[in-house]
Specification:
alpha/beta; homodimer; 365 residues; seven-stranded parallel β-sheet
């Protein structure tokens, strides 16, 4: 298939540091190339890909101090995608709703993965207005605030199979990995570690907006010698950080739409002790790949149990459920579904139907 | 002509308080109706107009506490405009660049007035990408940072002729009207008034972003009994406020693209003492409708001179140069220019040319 992947421009694909959406787009793009598809990636110019790169801007916008208005570059890129729509069988967007008005007339060759939380007050208005746009959720839980939207499926994220290998988890610490922010509840992770009497290593970035929270709530807790704050870590350090950990703590306080770190831990054979909000019950298998708990007390009790889980089994469940290949095949099935619907009785007439039938034939070669 | 005016949704048309763009769109819309055109106004649902109102949202977004993401409603509105493009002879946008990708394919029936400053670092990229879009500046000075853009003309703003009447300016105070912000230099107005020994009335809103500036720089100055801070005033109070004033102080510290208050003062027969940045030399006639000065000292010296300017002459110059009717006729000439260019050798082929020729014929009925 001729596939276009359209990423946000805030981070490169893959990102240098944090950046879940661009990371997933990168994994998916590389996997499609590996599976033999013709892939074009619309992303920031400093992205690295084996697909054809169509740069939407020179550098990732988050690190470009001259960029005051990211909307400019996103609109330019989306317009270019629209003008080239005929070159592709499917256009797969990861740009929230921004492309909806531009691509509404060729909805029948688009798929949009919504990567963020969906309980924002203005989203229903635009989802209703562009109700023809085929949508994908990244967990079933993510859909709850907009269960009525035009969902074609849920595709759980995946990682390249060989990105990580099973670690032995024998460094004697618990891990926290992500952002320092109230909804990720690092204070709760600290409490769990202290009550369990086990060291906690915190690898996390602190966004500008969370600086005050870090200083008022987290920094004062870091005096404890059990705790080590190591700041934001790059992709290269993540495997060792997670693989050496006894368990990952994920005591989130919000409905996490996915939580990439959960499957990163699994890929390293590391069990997860998580609160059961959002996507967690769809990702963690209680008693197999970790423990889903209700409160700090249960989390503390789970620490010694987690140590006893079989790391090879956790890795195997990763390989069965969360590889980039599985993710790519799930998406291919949804692309077919979009194209089939377009050529069916709801489609846009003979010409479109003919074109789509061709597309489907092409894809099943 | 069948004219669509497309306003931003932040304020109603006209705005209840401050809001230059929506105010001008409202004046222009009402004037086109008065001149016998078929006008549709795309604006917030609480707008008041004698044109056909197409609401882009229920209430002006700035006052809607449930609105976190104004982009949603702008995209929905612009998409509806695009779908209805065939219903109009001309689409006149006041929404910055946001409609460019959506309307690029029918540039030949659009005109875009840029209302803001143009020295922002990301603007050139989008202006270059959509270089077909016909643009209007609101002063020649506004164009300087992007002189190369696709300008069709400059249209200075105008006010309804009967909105204000000449006041007698005998209340013995100088006036400052606008926003409290460093670029409007209220501190400088205060200094001018104090050194001239004349009372100053300050009618101004303080935006959230300027609250710290107000508290640190302006509030401490307000102890002086010569100064009176009366906060934001509504449209109904503006005539008396300006008409009673000896002169308006406009000591701006930035390249103001237009400065609606300048012509509001003129409509009340009130002279303006202004620093010569941005649009000021295109609006104020030195020695006739006010004085253009270089510094505080010259401004102080101009106060007694301004008192002696003939208020009836100032009002006459307003009627000659700055009525909404003159503004509307200027825009009509530019609409013709767009349509003529569209049907000319640069136009989009026979069908478009035919349609446009019809449009022009219709307009000159």
């Amino acid at each position: 298939m001729r596939i276009a992947q359209i990423a946000p421009l805030y981070e490169s694909c893959p990102p240098q540091f944090y950046g879940g959406t661009e990371r997933v787009v990168s994994y998916l793009t590389e996997e499609f190339v590996r599976l033999g598809h013709e892939v074009t990636l619309f992303a920031s110019g400093d992205s690295r890909t084996s697909a054809v790169l169509e740069p939407g801007c020179k550098n990732a916008l988050r690190f470009d101090s001259r960029c005051k208005d990211p909307l400019v570059y996103h609109l330019i890129m989306l317009d270019r995608v629209r003008r080239r729509a005929g070159d592709f069988d499917i256009l797969h967007f990861h740009t929230d709703y921004l492309h909806f008005p531009l691509l509404a007339d060729c909805w029948d060759k688009t798929l949009t993965t919504l990567h963020g939380r969906l309980d924002l007050p203005d989203l229903p208005a635009i989802m209703r207005e562009f109700s023809m746009m085929p949508l994908v959720s990244i967990s079933h839980a993510q859909r709850v605030p907009m269960a009525w939207a035009n969902w074609y499926g849920t595709v759980l994220h995946g990682l390249p199979r060989d990105l990580y290998r099973v670690g032995n988890g024998d460094s004697g610490y618990l891990a926290f990995l992500g952002r320092i922010s109230p909804e990720k509840a690092p204070d709760c992770a600290i409490e769990i570690a202290r009550r369990a009497g086990v060291p906690l290593q915190i690898a996390a970035k602190v966004d500008q907006v969370d600086q005050a929270y870090f200083e008022s709530t987290i920094a004062p807790l870091l005096q404890d010698p059990l705790l080590e704050f190591i700041g934001e870590i790059g992709e290269a350090s993540k495997g060792a950080f997670l693989g050496d950990a006894m368990a990952l703590l994920f005591p989130i306080a919000w409905p996490e739409p996915f939580g990439l770190v959960l499957i990163e831990a699994m890929a390293n054979g590391t069990p997860v002790i998580a609160f059961g909000h959002g996507s967690v019950p769809e990702i963690i298998e209680d008693g197999i790949t970790g423990f889903i708990v209700d409160d700090v007390e249960a989390a503390v009790a789970a620490v010694p149990l987690a140590k006893r889980l079989d790391r090879k089994t956790i890795r195997r469940r990763f390989e069965e459920r969360f590889t980039a290949e599985r993710m790519a095949r799930d998406y291919l099935a949804l692309y077919q579904q979009v194209l089939a619907r377009a050529s069916g009785p709801l489609g846009l007439g003979a010409e479109a139907a003919g074109r789509m039938a061709q597309d489907v034939a092409h894809d099943t070669d």
